[in-house]
Specification:
Elements: H1 2-16, E1 21-27, H2 46-54, E2 56-62, H3 68-77, H4 81-84, H5 103-107, H6 110-113, H7 123-129, E3 133-139, E4 157-161, E5 172-173, E6 176-177, E7 179-181, E8 184-185, H8 194-209, E9 215-220, H9 245-249, H10 258-283, E10 290-296, H11 318-321, E11 325-328, E12 337-344, H12 348-355, H13 372-376, E13 385-390, E14 393-398, E15 401-406, E16 409-414, H14 430-448
The structure holds calcium ion.
Calcium ion (CA) is lined by residues 28-29, 67-68, 225, 297-298.
């Protein structure tokens, strides 16, 4: 009897302590104002709005780089791009000049030879060690040579593309077939709108594990990024953001041009896929034990603009670096809360490790912290500063001060009174300008002192 009681108590305790499932959703180039619940645009995101209502929405949340690859490297490693080595795009720039890569030429191009240093430990490595089933569905963007692909980086499942953009229907990147199932390239879904493909694979992964084993689904959509399609393959014009006609049709009478209807349509289709994943988790009885996170990998690329923020993707203005962020975990973070605390994507990895009841290896230098107490409202954000560098473009935020020095703009701004970065206070506040430059220099020195390696240096 006592043994049975003890067994029962132990079973209850282990159930109570069951690590939460994690669904980390990333969208591609979705601007800071581009959620329905922001009320700023005719965009429709009812499922993301539902996540916002069930959890916390952060309004001052930043990524580490104003474009895809380095931002995503920080998400997966919890480290600044300048620390993990992936501090520029993995991209064949020759496509910008209309160059068409042959299959053979592509195989030895930067998109195949560069990637996230295999010595870096990813969220997949760390959560797998904690007993999680780990899957990636969507845009990996961490390199495509076998050593860089998810199955070699801690993940058990991968369906998606390794490079940073594709055509939504052919799944080609400027003519090169780009989807992988596991480690093998596949054209099995050629012709199907890729968000629908990712939806199907995400549901497969969730249904395979929900209720049986804690799972981590990394679900980085390529939507709503512009298609990586050569103009000559599309009637002489680049297609922009592709979306199925039924989704575009919803927006035609609401927006000024077809391009914007495509962008909103792609977001609406992605939002429905997210809703389907939420529903699968609910059907498995796992809603209470699942953390959903959502963010964009960088600021909006110009579709409808990022007002009231200035600038867009690839710039050091707030519109390039500040992104929408949501986190829902029923019973663990308050429902419907909005926080203006200063937070970044560097916080995601430590937060998820803490939620999973595990810790990072002692020798791993992380650049963020567990942000759950901040999202709950139990404490102010410990983050007081953040730094960015993209080639010669530099920026820093310290407290409410923002400084940038870049090809597309410079100056010193007070984000508290001027979130739109309209009044340059450089000459009025020389002492603050000096302090910002000094902080940036100290950060740069710290990054230079980190392990001297990276795909653009050496392994
Ligand atoms: Ca992006």
């Amino acid at each position: 009897m006592i043994v049975r009681l003890l067994t029962c108590l132990l079973a209850t305790a282990s159930l109570a302590a069951a690590p939460p499932n994690i669904v980390l959703i990333v969208s591609d180039d979705q601007g800071w104002p581009d959620l329905g619940c922001m009320g700023l645009k005719p965009i429709q995101t009812p499922n993301l709005d539902r996540l916002a209502a069930a959890g916390v929405r952060a309004t001052q949340f930043y990524v580490t780089w104003p474009a895809c690859t380095p931002s995503r490297s920080s998400l997966l490693t919890g480290r600044y791009p300048q620390r993990n080595g992936l501090y520029d795009m993995v991209r064949n720039d020759l496509v910008n000049y209309g160059h068409r890569f042959t299959k053979e030429e592509y195989a030895v191009s930067p998109e195949m030879t560069l990637g996230l240093d295999p010595k870096e430990r990813t969220l997949g490595n760390l959560l797998k060690a904690a007993g999680y089933a780990c899957g990636v569905v969507g845009k990996w963007d961490m390199g495509q040579a076998k050593r860089y692909l998810p199955l070699q980086r801690g993940f058990d499942f991968f369906y998606g593309h390794g490079n940073n953009g594709i055509d939504y229907y052919t799944h080609e990147r400027y003519g090169i077939p780009s989807l992988f199932r596991g480690n093998v390239r596949t054209e099995e879904d050629k012709g199907t709108y890729v968000t629908e493909v990712f939806r199907r694979e995400a549901l497969y992964f969730v249904n395979e594990h929900a209720g049986r084993k804690p799972f981590f689904l990394y679900l980085p959509f390529n939507a709503p990024h512009g298609a990586s399609t050569l103009a000559e393959d599309n009637g002489g014009q680049k297609p922009g953001v592709q979306a199925p006609e039924a989704y575009k049709a919803r927006f035609r009478d609401k927006v000024k041009d077809e391009k914007l209807a495509g962008y909103y349509g792609a977001v609406a289709c992605m939002d429905e896929a997210i809703g389907a994943v939420m529903e699968a988790v609910a059907q498995a009885g796992q809603t209470e034990n699942t953390i959903f996170l959502f963010l964009s990998d960088n600021g909006g690329s110009g579709n409808g603009g990022n007002a009231p923020l200035k600038g867009s993707k690839s710039t050091m203005w707030e519109g390039g670096l500040r992104v929408p962020f949501l986190l829902a975990w029923p019973g663990r973070v308050p429902a419907g809360r909005v926080t203006d605390e200063f937070l970044t994507s560097l916080e995601i990895l430590p937060t998820l490790l803490a939620a999973a009841g595990t810790t990072a290896p002692k020798d791993l230098d992380l650049d963020g912290f567990d942000m759950l107490p901040v999202l709950r409202g139990d404490q102010p954000s410990p983050r007081t500063e953040m730094f960015w560098q993209r080639r010669s473009d530099r920026a820093a935020r310290v407290g409410h001060w923002k400084w940038l020095d870049s090809a597309k703009g410079k100056g010193l701004y007070d984000l508290l009174s001027d979130p739109g970065e309209t009044r340059d206070l450089s000459s009025e506040k020389p002492e603050v300008l000096e302090m910002m430059r000094g902080k940036f220099a100290a950060w740069r020195a710290a990054m230079d002192a980190t392990e001297p390696r990276g795909p653009f240096r050496d392994y």
